[in-house]
Every structure is written in structure tokens, then in C-alpha cells.
Amino acid sequence: MNPAPGEEPRQAGDGVNLSKEEVDESAVRKAVIASAMGNCVEWFDFGVFSAGVMTSIVGTVFFPEGAAGSATLRSFALIAAAFLARPFGGMFFGPMGDKLGRKRVLAATIILMSGSTFVIGILPGYTTIGIAAPLLLLGVRLVQGFSTGGEYGGAATMIAEYAPTNRRGFFGAFLELGTLSGYILGAGLVLLMDLALSTESMHDWGWRIPFMIALPLGMVGLFVRTRIEDTPTFQKMEEAGNKSESPLRDTLEHYWRVILMLIGIVFLLNVADYTLLTFMPSYLVDYLDKNDTTAQLITILVEALMIMVILPLGALSDRIGRKPLLITAAIGYIFLSWPAFALMQTNSALGVALGYAIVGGLLVLMLAVIGATFPAMFPTKVRYGAFAIGYNISTSVFGGTVAVLVGSLIDATGSNYIPAYYLMIAGLVALYPIIKIPETAGVPIERAGTENAPEPAGSGAR
Amino acid sequence: MRIPKRVNTVLDWMEQHYLALGVVVALVVVALVATLAPAAVGLPVAGFVLGGAAGGLLVHVRLSRRIARGRADVDNLLRENGALRHRNTVLASGVITREAQETQALVAIPEDDLLDGPEADPQSTATLDELLDAGDPQTTDELPGPPEEAEVPEEPEDPAESDPQRTTVLPTLPDDLLEPGGEDDEDTARTPRKSRRA
Known about the structure:
The complex is a heterodimer.
Chain A: H1 25-50, H2 52-61, H3 71-100, H4 102-122, H5 126-129, H6 132-162, H7 168-196, H8 199-206, H9 208-226, H10 232-240, H11 247-254, H12 256-286, H13 292-320, H14 323-344, H15 349-373, H16 383-399, H17 402-413, H18 418-436
Helix pairs in contact in A: 1-4, 1-6, 1-7, 1-9, 2-3, 3-4, 3-6, 3-16, 4-6, 4-9, 6-7, 6-16, 7-13, 7-15, 12-13, 12-15, 12-16, 12-17, 12-18, 13-15, 14-15, 14-18
Chain B: H1 5-16, H2 18-34, H3 39-92, H4 98-104
Keywords (chain B): Membrane, Transmembrane, Transmembrane helix
């Protein structure tokens, strides 16, 4: 890390001195903004597409009248299509990022993501182009999912490799801050337009506006991503000639165990995340007889509260370690899921709020640390690819199916506690890998994930 | 009344961590209050809160120990740094050290008699040729070489001199060393020089 005697410290494109841990704070901030913007665009699209009013509009505009199934169901099918494409995106973009560099791949993914969301906003409906409308929409959703598969892994890797070792938790929390902000922006914008416009205007042209806003958001992210150099860690690995010849093969051959542990932890993350974001609004409407606007407002409010605590929790993890927060979340879901849904059944505003707060509060414990935890599970040469593959397989299988699975089971069993049982099972499954993974707070990212990784310094986790 | 040593240790520990213990007590109270709720909700919440309090105290104690170790290391390094700076200052100020005083106490070995010869060179290594009976004064071999056949009269062979194992080379003293009146007599107290007037 230190320059050799007589040698000047390496300089990055914008004059960043990369000696030892003295990475320029402004370069770190740019990297954080660049990474978080991509996540923001991804979840902006999700917030827009999964908003109640939008699912019914999209399911109507792009399909013939009298088509089989409800409009909402057709929209959910399109959401599921994006999830199906994610693992392939992870397998394509991840190893590419390990070979060519994080910056180039992230520039490509944000262009694809924001561009495909924009295209949905300008696509003609079924009445204009007929059967091509749903097919084009499906194609666009697949491209969205494919690009999203490479986005999160790269964004988290970029932040983890840029951040100073002793503040990786704090800066990593910005990634999920982008997630929450993007969802609130998307869902909030749809809600505002729905309240401001008449039903007819919203159905005719109003629904396109939120999709089209994704493009300028993406362009901002692209601009910032092109203004930074690739991560110092990747550059050092490249100069030392330690790049893997075949990152995909290396990943699947040597790190499949760690990928399985990642899948286990992300199982709980996705079940909790998508339960809160996609299932809970419809749960409140369909099973607890709340109106749509109230359900959306409660979701947005809980997410706003999560935004307020996520950065301090990330900073806390730099002091006490990542694992205490993850273990607390897992045990919390095991013991408190049932009481949370029991509180929601009380039909009182306080009960619903408390129940929601429990689910959201435990989720934010995980969200605050995953941006720093997951990249540190793998060594630099396969980090992007291994993380992208594991994360997106778990998201595709467990995240995309939560709403459909839980809704079907509630209908089949008649029990409103199905989401609680699913969360408890997910907590039990995730607890084992959470305990098994090494603590990485305070461990330099260049050595994290390797066999001879040092013990964490300065954290009370051990 | 004397406080037992163990109790005193515990009290000291509690005083050091009174803030963390205060938070634990507050959480225990919250857990107790939670038990007032219906059992389906209250008991799991109470259990979670108590578990969180225990886990938090454990993390706090570990972190405190790590910080105390780190501070002790820093103190040791500062102490060592201070001692090195003091020594550096003393040496740099030109104060003669004890070792230097001892060096000056050694008697200087006079070297003037070795430089009296016509070929004396201060840079050359002087040989103690006056101690050798014969042979090349430049040789380093201490043992005397075989005597030259033409010039050196044969002398009865002294078994001691021919012994190759002999390591000491003692000068052969002239017979009249102790007799007075020798030409080379030095004017010493034992052999007063005769006056040349006579």
C-alpha cells in the first residue's frame, strides 16, 4: 500500500493520493453517490411499477380487453419476469466487472436500467400496436432485470472498495439509503400524481410520467460514474497482475460455499424486504380492510423512519461489528414476527403502526450493514461476480415469489399469520450462516474474504 | 467495616461501567412492562428485549477490554518514545557518556621507539625485529628459521631452539650482560658508566 522508497504515491484521475488508507474523501463521496444512484434508479422503477394504481393501469394498457386473469396479476407476472432475468445478469456482468473493472460495467448497467424504464413510459399501448405491446413490454422488463442483476453487486463492491476500512459500514449504508430513497420517490410520485390527476388523466397519460423521470435520474448517476476512477483495490490488483483469468470459473469452483451462505442470509433479507414493500400494502388492503392510500402512506412513512436510522446504524457497525446487528435481526424475526402480525390484527392504528415498525425496524438492522458485509465475504478477484451471482439467485428465487407465495398460502389456509411464519423460517435459515461468516469490520477490504484475512481490529464483536 | 476484596472489585467494575449497566436496567424494566401485554405479544417481546440487553452488555464489555488493551499499548509506546527521546537529547548535546570516560582512563601505549628507524613510516606496520636473532624481519612466522650455513658459526645445538613446537622467542642474552665495563653498557644505576677522562 505504501509507495516504495523514492517512489511517489499513485495518483488517480482526479488527483487522489492512494497511499495507505489516505483515500481522498471527495473521491469516496463521488463513489458513494455514483453507486447509490444506481440503486436509487432500480428501486425507483420498482416503487413505480409495484404501486397499486400502476399495476392496474399497466395490466390494462398493454393487454387486450377481456384478457385472462386480473390486471394486477398480469402486472405481477411482468414484475416476476424481471426477477427471473436477474441471475443471468449477475452471471454476465459480475465476472465482467472482475475482469474489466467495476466502473465500466456499472456505467453499462445504469444506462440499461434507466433506459429500459424510460422506454416503458413511451411504449405504445395495445390499442395502438396490438400484440406487440405486451411482447415489447416483456422484452423491456427482461432487459431491466438483466441489467439490475449486475447493478447491485457492482455498486456494493464499488463502495466497499473505495471506503476507508474503519468507515466501511457507514459508507456502505448509503447503498440501502439509495434503495429506500428510490422506493419512496417512485411510490410517492405515483401517489402524488394519483391524488393530483383525475382517474381518466392518470389512465391516459399520467402513468407515463414517473417512468420517464427514470432517464434523467439515470443520466445523473452515469455522469458521476464516469467522473471517478476505478476502485483503488481493483487498480492495485490489476497492477499486481492478480486478476483471475476466468472469474466465473474461479467463483463457482472455489467460493460456492460462501455463495451458499450468502444465499441463506439474503433469503431472510429478501423475505423481509419484499414482505414489507410488496406484500404489506396489499395485506393491509385485502386482509385488514384498509384503503389503498392509507396502506401506501404507512409504507412510505415506515421507510422514511428507516432512512433516518440507517446511517447511524452503519456507523455503529464500524464500532461493534456487523454480526451483532445481523444476529439481532435474525433472532428478532424468529421471536417477534408473530407478535408483529398479531399487533396488526388488532385493527387499531397504534397496533398496525407498532407491528409495521417491528418488521421495518428489524429490516433496517440488516439493511444498514449488508452494503459492507456482503462484498467483504469474497476476495477482490472474484468479489463482483460471486456477490452478484449469489445475491441475484436468492433475490430471484425468494424475493420475487414472496407476494405470490404468501398470498396463495393465506388464501389456501385462511390464516393471516402466514407472513409471520415465513419470516420466522427465514430467520432460522439465516441465523446459521450469519454466525458462521467471519467478522469483517475493521478488516482491510484487500484482505477480506481471503484465507489469511486478519482478525478485525477495534470492534467489540469478539 | 472492611469491604471484602472481591466485593470491592465488583463494585469498581460496576462504577467503571455504570452507564451500560444503567441501560441494561432500563431495558429490564421495559421487558417487565412488556409482560403486562397479552402473553402472545408480551412474552416474546420481553424475551427479545432481555436478550438484546445481555448481548449489548457483552459487546460493551468486549469493546471496553479491547479499548483498555489499546490504551495500555499506546501508553507503553509513549513511555518508550519518551525514554528514547531523552537518550537522543543527551547524546546530541555532547555530554560525554560513562563509556567515553572509561575509554579515556586507559593508558596510551607509546609508539615513538618504533618510528626511530630511517625507513620509519607512520603508516607501516612496525615489526619487532630487534627481538629476532635471525631471519627476515618481514616474516610473520614467530619461530626462528633454520640458521644460514656459511655465516653463522655452528653452535652447539640447543635442543630447545630446534624444537618446532616452541612458541616463544626469547632473546639470547649475551654472556657479559651482567659484567661491568661492557661497551654497550647503559648508564644505569646498576652499571654506572666510567668516566671517559681517564
